Amino acid sequence: MEKSETIWNRRFILLFITNLLVLAAFYASIPIIPLYCEEIGITGSKVGIVLTAMSVATILFRPVAGYLLDNFNRYRVYLIFLALFCLSFPAFLAFPVFGALIVVRLYMGAVYSVCGSATMTLAGDVLPAAKVTQGISRFAFTVSIGMALGPFVGLQVQENLSSRASFLTIFGIAVAALVCVSLCRIKYPKVQRGRFSLKESIYAPALPFMFNMMFLMIPYGAVIAYSSILAQEKGLTPWLPYFYIFLVAGMLVSKLSTRKRIDAGNHRALVCASLVVLILTMASYLFLSTRVHLLAAGFFFGVGYGILQPLFQAFVTGTTPPPQRGVANATYMLSYDVGIGLGSLLMGFLQQPVGPAPGFALTAVFYLVGGGLYLGWTDGYYSRRKAACEAGRNP
After folding, report:
1. pLDDT digit string (tens) for 174-223?
2. Least enclosed by CB within 10 Å: which of 39, 175, 242, 260?
3. CATH second-level architecture of 10-186+204-390?
């Protein structure tokens, strides 16, 4: 493949937009599903089961995703699975039954496992070798924006029109992503195809990053899935879409204000600062009762994740040789699958006995666990792998 010597080359920009649209479509569905389930008579822990079903399928299929991306034409694989991903959104409307929705979510998880790993891998492939870490740090910001912008769009449509209109809107966003990536036309040389091996489908060097980020994503899964329920309980539903606007604003502020420090390698202080912000934000949910507090929580939630998500993605891609980036990203993205799934499932069980606000506050303990892992292991592990890469050794 021919690569431009700049980060923002044509293919990178198209992939940036594509990933933003895909993630916006995916995360737009998460806060809508609990509301949709209640509309069709599904309540309580069953809502958590529907939400978590996708995570189960994604976890099981991620190893296959890594194999497909490293043993077949990555670009063609992505086109096929993105087309399949588009079909999952109208399926919610076609099968409004508890058991059928579980099947739809399982299907969605399987195809999304490939889509979620492919764009990050393709982006790394079209970047100059010397700028992969810097470029992926920029590219990973699509994850943060998509996670925040998607729910805003979905909830706005759901509030003003209907759940049906929301799912059709999300379907349109996904189709726009498919059109966008089809314009990339990335060419790959033929690869020597190996046999599928479960052992080789997990990239062991990415596991510390994956395991660490998994704990950090549990509170995120809880908030994204059950903010709509909390807003109903507090009488703040009209303000919930703006929660996600403030979430995006927080991410932009943190990204723009910390970019130079990230590029300079000042990771430890940034991770610690973001965790302090997130712990205080989650604890404040115990006292949340006003729209100002709701919007402030969204902003500081965005500040924290606007640092953590791009940073950890850069850790993985920047320390992985190009031929293994498919399986490395598939392994790392398990952190999102498991973390968000556990957060959704946990809140499904906490919602009725303790309520969403105390439940959110309780999840802050996972930030302490994640912070302990980072300081005790991940920080030093990344430094060793980075030094090995810079010395020209295979880490």
Report:
1. 999 999 999 988 887 777 777 767 677 788 888 999 999 999 999 998 88
2. 260
3. Up-down Bundle (1.20)
